[in-house]
């Protein structure tokens, strides 16, 4: 009888993460996502899309395009990307979309989720540049000796360019179970 109650308690405790219409607490990131300080992150390296499609891609995964709000979070994202592509020729020199843009007012970079100006930035020296139509932010990789890559900072890029999304589910968001990937 004691085992029955323990199993029942476990089922009740996990039910909110297995039922059809519930939401999971953020302590449990979806498969393939990585956690850091209460948020979950997903690098979509198999998808190369323009910035608007990157936003939609993250929404399909029940997240949003990453908003990097602290130096620690920026360091984590860069380190995570470097670990993912340490011994790989994949994505050498490629860029990964961030959730910042200056589409509303040239030179005023905001997060697309709330139109608030960026308080923290991780721009590469000389960035954002002043070349033409570069209104969306990316984090860029550059090859290093030995074949590894260094994600050295943010750059502005044309929003129509094809890059890989980095998605985030923050502690303010909830994780719907249905359709999680």
What does this structure look like?
The protein has three helices and ten strands; from the N terminus they run αβββαβαββββββ. The protein is of the alpha+beta class and about 180 residues long. The protein has one domain: Mannose-Binding Protein A, Chain A (Roll), CATH 3.10.100.10. The strands form two sheets. Strands 2, 3, 4, 5, 6, 7, 8 and 9 form an eight-stranded mixed beta sheet that branches. The two termini are about 35 Å apart. The relative contact order is 0.25.
- The structural class is alpha+beta
Cα Rg = 19 Å
CATH superfamily: Mannose-Binding Protein A, subunit A
Secondary structure tally: strands? 10
Shape: globular
Mean pLDDT: 80
**Straight-line N-to-C gap:** 37 Å
Oligomer: single chain
- Report the total helices: 3
Q: Domain count, please report it.
A: 1
Low-confidence stretches: 1-25, 175-181
Q: Which CATH class is shown?
A: Alpha Beta
CATH arch. level architecture: Roll
Residues in helix, %: 10-25%
Strand content: 25-35%
Order of helices and strands: HEEEHEHEEEEEE
The largest sheet is:
8 strands, mixed
In CATH terms, what is the fold-level topology? Mannose-Binding Protein A, Chain A
How would the blueprint of this fold be written?
Elements: H1 2-15, E1 23-24, E2 34-36, E3 39-43, H2 51-60, E4 64-65, H3 71-84, E5 95-101, E6 110-111, E7 136-143, E8 149-157, E9 164-169, E10 175-176
Parallel strand pairs: 5-9
Antiparallel strand pairs: 1-10, 2-3, 3-9, 4-9, 5-6, 5-7, 7-8
InterPro entries: C-type_lectin-like, C-type_lectin-like/link_sf, C-type_lectin/snaclec_domain, CTDL_fold
Protein name: C-type lectin domain-containing protein
Keywords: Signal
């Amino acid at each position: 009888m004691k085992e029955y109650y323990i199993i029942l308690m476990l089922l009740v405790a996990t039910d909110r993460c297995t039922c059809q219409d519930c939401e999971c607490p953020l302590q449990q990131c979806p498969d393939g996502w990585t956690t850091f300080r209460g948020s979950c992150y997903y690098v979509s390296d198999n998808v190369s899309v323009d910035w608007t499609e990157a936003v939609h891609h993250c929404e399909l995964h029940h997240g949003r395009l990453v908003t990097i709000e602290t130096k620690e979070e920026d360091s984590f994202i860069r380190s995570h990307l470097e670990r993912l592509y340490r011994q790989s020729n994949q994505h050498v020199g490629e860029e990964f979309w961030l959730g910042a843009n200056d589409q509303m007012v040239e030179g005023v970079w905001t997060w697309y989720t709330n139109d608030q100006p960026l308080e923290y930035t991780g721009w590469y020296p000389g960035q954002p540049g002043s070349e033409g139509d570069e209104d969306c932010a990316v984090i860029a990789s550059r090859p290093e000796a030995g074949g590894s890559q260094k994600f050295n900072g943010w750059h502005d890029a044309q929003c129509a360019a094809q890059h890989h999304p980095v998605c985030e589910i923050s502690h303010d968001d909830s994780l719907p179970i249905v359709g999680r990937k």
